[in-house]
Every structure is written in structure tokens, then in C-alpha cells.
Amino acid sequence: MTSHNAPSPAIYRPIIALIVMVALASCAAQRDAPSDEFTISIFGTNDVHGQLSPDGDRGGLVAVSAYVNALRAARNEDGGAVLVIDAGDMWQGTLESNLVEGAAVVNAYNAIGFDAAAIGNHEFDFGPVGSNSVPEDSGDDPRGALKRRASEAAFPVLAANLIDEDTDRPVDWENVRPSIILDVKGIKVGIIGVMTARALQTTIAANVLGLRVAPLAETITKEAQALREQGASIVVVTAHAGSRCMGFDDPTDLSSCNMAGEIMRVAAALPTGLVDHIIAGHVHRGIAHIVNGVSITSSYSNTRAFSRVDFVIDSNTRNLVSRIVFPPHWACLSVVRSTGECASPGNAASELMNAMYEGHAVKPDPRVLEIAARASAVADDIKHQQLGVHLESAFPHPPSTESPLANLMTDALLEATGADIAIHNVVGGIRDTLPEGELTFGSVYEMFPFDNRVVELELAGHQLRRIIAEQAHNHGRRAGFSGMRVIVECKKDKMYVVMNLDDGAAIRDDDYLTVIVNDFLALGGDGILTPVMPDGGFDVDDSMPLTRDVLVEWFQDGGDSLNPDDFVTAGNPKWSVPDSLAASCKL
After folding, report:
1. Total structural domains in the chain?
2. Which of 13, 79, 416, 462 is placed for a possible disulfide with 554 were both Cys, Cβ 3.0 to 4.6 Å?
3. Are residues 58 and 165 in the same domain?
């Protein structure tokens, strides 16, 4: 898959080998550590999204296994230990994983030897076990696939703030618990799992009925205090919640970080000294910083990189001596000999060498290689099915609501269904590019891996106006649409919304329009339709086709070629909103 939200160039530099140390007391460099000290390395992954195989020479659980093994070899040599922990969104996202509802990913995690993982919002996406993505009769368990994968995991799955509304307690499913204590070379390490406060709004609503998410900081504090009372010397949180930083030269320098991001606010709210480390995720960005005495790491998404923090322990007192925070590290199998940078398709074989990590060759675990190869073989025939259309250039992943790919998707849904308007959560709902060349089913699947169904609504003009008014304030994540143009103005905090159909006709409050959405939005996802949503969400017709299938059929029927330039709307934007729209501006 193509990389998005690329890491800072800082992590390309040879300086990557020079770690950033935050000393709690004086200590030597790791390899020269005194014999009365040992190191516990915490290797973190997040937002793997089913990525089993590398993209070229980078990523995949295949590459993750290689780096974990290299790090374990280094710790075995110096008497230390390694914990491997994931921060959620493990298995939803690739055809290889989705065809078996994440089973191949769980097998790979078991082979790698993960120690714990958090539940993320996309762990709910598969719904019941089997082909139905949502329950369709009384015997369907809406969390069936998640529960089965958790029961197959050789590691605990953690969800301290996922609350069963019937019991008002954390969910009680096989192998799912709030936290765990592991004995690591005589040191008790407590691990807590939590998810973002918006987790249940960013998956299919039908699969999370009867659940709620408790506040993160309050949950972590309570759970961490209990772990400390049970003797935990180190407390780690694996959190499917995040933020982002851009610079990684100094973990104490927060100037490049979004301190308003959820995990930054959570860390700042924790009692000082209660939690040692957080592995973050969800927003697919990088972090390697310290907030309120808590180190936080996050390594983008799709196994392109991994995170790491080292805790150096006094062997005699069992006290923490120092903490070393590493920048996100690319998970590449081959590097350019002269620079140490990850290999790319343009590099000649003679320029390349196997990657090294901690003095050890990076070699994939053969068990993980076999799991990935089996999954790929099952998916290959489907993945390489050509759809009969040539893309003259790549359609990039949408950095904004009106990228050519976002416009292509909403235009296709509108044309394929014959509706008046199509609305889609294009930022977040679109997961990858469409590459140049002959378009395949696999590329469409990776672009939109969700089994969402098309939903047809009849909305009045005044309802549509309320939706647009709310979305106007959703800067950076506005809903994408086709079939109309919108102009938003503000005068003395009074919002005026002008909506015109593509033929120029004004949309009046008493007009009724056929609007195409998907079941994720129809049941409350991303809050796009909530201003006009009835209790329980809109009705969803389970006989309607999957959104992805509608797109595939449109591509098959759409002609010989497509060019992204034909889907640029900069000269006639669908959204016209003032850059500085005041929060107080309302209808």
C-alpha cells in the first residue's frame, strides 16, 4: 500500500542509530550498560490494518517479525527482555486479512509473540462471524468476529474503557480484559488497554449497540492505581487514541506536537508518576515524546514503521534507572548501502544490502512468511481481477474533501444510483490511492476496504441545510458530496447556506431529494447525519448492495480510461466556506 502521512525526514538520517536518552539517573549507553543493569525494550505497533506482506521492501508483519527478532537477539545478549504491544486496529484493511475476518493477522501476531493488544474501533467492522457485516437475525452476535479473533489470540486483548451497558462494567469476553500484569525478569509490568472516546462513532453502529466508552484518563488512573497496588513497577498503556508530532530530535521538545490531540490531553491529565509509557494510535501519525513524565510513541500505520522505548533497570534494587525514547523506525528489509535509507523500486540490486538492527541482520520469521504467503495466495485471483478501465495517472489519497479521488468516489455513487445527491465520509472512509495503470479489484478494495451498504434516504431541503451547516465547521474532515454546490456565508454570527443542484436549480427547504449515503453514516458514523437523524438511526435495507460493489460495477461500465484531472473542482468547488468560519456562526 502507498505510504500516507509520511514520517519526518529526520528518521531517514544516519542519526537514527543515535538514540535520545532521558536520564532518570546517570547511566552509560545501552550496549555499555553496567552488568548490574538490564533493559526492557517495549516494541510498539499500531493501526496494522491487516498488512501482512511488505509493500516492496517495507512493512508488513513479515518485516515487523524481522525487527522483533533482531531486537530480541540483542536483549538476549545483554540479559534484557522485549515486550511487543499493539495499540489497536489490527486486522481490518486488506483483502488478505478481510477474507478471513482477521484470522491470518491473529496467526501472525501469535507467531511473532505479541504480549498484548488493545481493541480499536475497526475491530468491530466485521460484525457477526461469516459474510454478514451487521446482524441480520436474532441469532447473529454483532461482536461475533471480534470475539472469535480474541479467543484465538495467544496474548491478552485489552479494553479497560469499553463498557457493557447491561453490567456497567468493562466487557467480559473470552481473553478480553481491562489490564494485565506480566513478570518480566522479576519486574512486574502492568499493561492497560483503552480506546478513543469516539471509537463507537467510527465503526458500524449496529455492531456496538449496548456498549459505551468510558473517559480515558479516569479509566487509566483507576486501573493504573490498582496495578501499582498489585506491585507493578512499570505501567504501560496501549491506547487506540492519538495525536501527532513532526520532529523527533528531542522527546522533551513538544513544539512540533499537536498538544490538543486526544492522547496528549489524556497524558497531561494523569497523576504524575502513575503511568510510565503510552503506545498510541488511531490517527496514523508519529509520536516519540514525553508529556507530563509519560513517554508516548506512535508509528504511523500499516506497519510502515514501529515504535520503541527502553527502560533500564537496576538489577539489585529493581528500580528504574533511565528511559530511552526512540523515533519511529522504518520497517524495511533492504537499505541503500551508501545511505542506510530504505530501499525503493528505483534502486539497483547492487546498491542494496540487508537491513541491520541492533547489530543483527533483519530476517523475517519463516512462520510469518508462510502465514502471509498463504493469505496472499487465497486473495490473489480476486485481487488481480481487472475492471476494464485504465487510470491515466494515480488518483492520490484525499488530503482534503475535494481531492480527485474523493470526487471520483462521490460522483460514481451518484451516477450509479441515479440519486439527486451522494454524501460520503471521504476523509477517513477512503484508505488508499488508486494507482496508475489497469485498475484491479484489489486496488478498489484497498481504497475502500469496508463492507458498508448503500442506503437511500429521502431528505427535505431544510434537513440537508442543517447537515451542511454542521459540516461547514468540520474543517479538514468535511463530508464529501456530489450532485450539488454549496456556498456558506456568515454575517454577524448568522450562517447563510445556499445549495444548488448541479443543474443550477436552488434547493429550497420544502424540496425533497433522494440522497445516497452508506450504512455507517445512516447509523450515526462520523456524526455527519446526526443533526437530522431519528432515534436509532435511519432504516437500513440489508438487501441493498455494498458500496464497494457499486463502485466496481461503475468502473466496469464507465469507459476505457479515467484521468484525475477530470475530477478537479478547484475552479468550481463543491464547498465554498470562509477560511475563518467562527464557531459561533450558526444557522
Report:
1. 2
2. 416
3. yes
